[in-house]
Design a protein that fits this description.
homodimer; alpha+beta; 2 domains; two-stranded antiparallel sheet; 6 strands; globular; DNA-binding
Chain lengths: ~120, ~120
Amino acid sequence: MTAQKMAVIRALEEAGRTHPTADTVYALAKRHLPSIALGTVYRNLTKMAETGEVIKIAVPDGADRFDMDVSDHMHILCVKCGKIYDIEEKDVKVEISSVPAGAELIRFDVMAKCICADCKAV
Amino acid sequence: MTAQKMAVIRALEEAGRTHPTADTVYALAKRHLPSIALGTVYRNLTKMAETGEVIKIAVPDGADRFDMDVSDHMHILCVKCGKIYDIEEKDVKVEISSVPAGAELIRFDVMAKCICADCKAV
DNA sequence: ACAGAAATAAGAACTATTCCTAAAATAAAA
DNA sequence: TTTTATTTTAGGAATAGTTCTTATTTCTGT
């Protein structure tokens, strides 16, 4: 546990449920540890994604997003503004009855797409 | 319908169920229309994704993939080799009982992750 | 045939991400 | 505590994927 990793975690905490990009995490982390480098943020996030401490969310037309909440929940992306909202586990049900022969299932990511309330209002 | 768009569609057909990247589509299209440019392939694919003629699949750690099969099916990605397999609609069930207030749901993409048979064998 | 509109090729530009290297921090050994 | 080895970092260069720009070409309607 280095000071840099701590700054990254703190940044993720501050970002709350906004599903920040690596760049946003970098900006937030820099406030506490001005010397931190973007590459370091990427490395830590990538490593944390590998160990399951965070979730990395690939979105079409944009940078990857990160989520501290590794609980079993889903995401819904507004295709207009790009904001990502959470859908609680209890509100979504996924069942897969068949996977390609011999494959070992690791995890699901459900990415729904919507036009969010804010964007519909415009 | 331009010759370029036709070449892109033909390339997608040839790619079959391999979920090609834009680059692969470009390479395939070039065989029939050597003058085609990568930018043109991107533009056509992007437009087709907007109109729903193809599906654009964002994958973590890699280029976007495209799928001619716009029927309601799901994808499963091997985290080792990056291959994407299909899961037929009948084999997966997704239910969402609640979306963020005021949001209009557009579509789902379920991206499961696995280690595929080929990679397990190694 | 001609004017205007839409689509293209080519490559420059841009963004997100990874890689490289030397320096710094940390841990282990003496 | 000094020395050595290991890990991690900052900084920036390099790369990959994608978009944008511009001049040119192709279509469309008259």
